[in-house]
Design brief:
single chain; 120 residues; alpha+beta; Translation Initiation Factor IF3; 3-stranded antiparallel beta sheet; 3 strands; elongated
Length: 120
């Protein structure tokens, strides 16, 4: 992510992003539409080797956990950027979806409804 993208994401108030259909204390005054962020990731050979070693001992496979969390964060940040470009100040009904595009290649999608809200 370049500096302009980082600044756009950092300027979006993340407390105004929710999985709910409302934001307590705010009313929706304008619906800006669907916003999304999508990331397509592949596992690296080094990551696969490290994960294979972790599976021998059982438990949480931290290499994959970190990879998945990073992909979700990037998709979320792209969605926030998209919402800010629409001129919204909040996102409601946020969801994640993931699919395997090909063996070892996954897509992570974060989407929601961009809205403009004002304090009640």
């Amino acid at each position: 992510m370049n500096n302009n993208q980082e600044n756009a994401v950092n300027n979006f108030d993340k407390s105004m992003v929710t999985t709910a259909f409302i934001l307590d204390g705010y009313k929706i005054i304008q619906n800006k539409g669907l916003v999304k962020g999508i990331i397509v990731r592949s596992r690296s050979i080094v990551g696969n080797i490290g994960a294979s070693i972790q599976t021998i001992f059982g438990g949480n496979i931290t290499i994959y956990t970190q990879m998945c969390e990073r992909a979700r964060d990037e998709a979320y940040n792209l969605m926030c950027q998209h919402a800010q470009a629409f001129g919204s100040n909040a996102i409601i009904a946020v969801r994640y979806d993931t699919n395997e595009v090909a063996p070892g290649i996954s897509e992570v999608l974060c989407y929601g409804t961009a809205v403009v809200v004002e304090k009640i």
